[in-house]
Amino acid sequence: MYRSHIIQIANILTVNFQRLPSMGITKGYLGVILFFYHYARYVRTETYNVFADELLYYVIRQRREKIHHIAPCGFNELCWCINYLLRNDFIEVDVYIRKILNSMFLSDYTMVKLENDIKSSFPIFSKGMAIYFLSDDSVIEKTISNLVDLLKSISKWGGNLTFVISILHFLNLCEKNGMRTNKLEKVKSEIILTIQKILVSGNYQVGELYLLEQMVKQENCYVNIPAYKYDLLLDVYMNWQTIVYGDIVRLEVLDSNVLATFLSDINFNVPIDKLSLDGICSLGINLINKSRD
Questions:
Q1: To pair with 278 at 20 to 30 A between CA atoms, which of 13, 30, 151, 285?
Q2: Which residues lie below 8 Å from residue 74, measured CB to CB, with a gap of 6+?
Q3: Integer Cα distance of 265 and 113 in angstroms
Q4: Per-residue pLDDT tens over the stretch 200-257
Q5: Contact residues for 257 (Cβ-Cβ < 8 A; gap 6+)
Q6: The model's pTM
Q7: Among positive and negative, which fits the CA dihedral 161, 30, 57, 93?
Q8: Separation CA 220–CA 205 (nearest Å)
């Protein structure tokens, strides 16, 4: 249904991706990498898979020798990206990827990383979201225990509803996997309380309410979400949350004429801030996934 639009997005990215100013997910190379792995599978062309491989290892090479010195949020984004690619069978573990993952598994979630996650353009609980699908129970339990110590700090920085929602999602995944401990229940209760405080304060965006509502529908928890009016505009689906949360936040059917006009405008004057996962990369991945439904 969206094949011409998907190809157009690939063409725009091929010509313009080198203009990106960072290696990150939402505004940099990692978002482009995610798109081209999906695109290679969609068009069944190995050339794009090789291109994505080369771009990924370019990012890894930039960080490999400075793995403990790079900005925490940047490293966390790389870990999440690698986790995503492994879970979806786009790549296999090699010596460089194993080094990155081991560094993530063995490190504690510190105040510095907490603050960097919350303030970044990719505000998710990176430690939990990255390790859940790759790690054993002992590492997950340690991460939950680490969260207990950071609860007061999370409450202090809790104005970012998107970040707090990602912790709730991590805890719900743990529960679904049969992990039920007093510490998990304590953290979950505190996180739900923090969410309610944010909702009372009014410090949120309508899109965050939509994300929270979709999640609560599928999770074992109750949150009193304020009534809101939400128009399903195109920019709703140009958002990295649809990639992070998969089936929880789904792409609706979009009008082909609206898409064609939008992409034509983008192609004529390509804005740098819409070249990665917080832009046409997430739109392209969502269209690819929707084409398979």
A1: 151
A2: 22, 23, 24, 63
A3: 38
A4: 888 888 888 888 888 888 776 788 888 877 665 545 545 788 888 876 776 666 677 7
A5: none
A6: 0.86
A7: positive
A8: 23
**Tokens 């109750």 belong to residue:** 222
The residue with tokens 């965050």 is: 208
Residue type, 92: E
Helices 29-43/72-87 angle, 10° precision: 10
3-state secondary structure 127-177: HHHHHCCCCCHHHHHHHHHHHHHHHHHHHHCCCCHHHHHHHHHHHHHHHHC
Q: Which two tokens stand for residue 238?
A: 């140009």
> For residues 153 and 192, is the Cβ–Cβ distance under 8 A?
no
CA torsion sign for 259, 263, 266, 268 is: negative
The Cα-based distances of 71 to 23, 120, 159 in angstroms read: 11, 11, 22
> How many secondary structure helices (H) and strands (E) does the chain include?
14, 0
In which element (H, E) is residue 42 found? Answer: helix 29-43
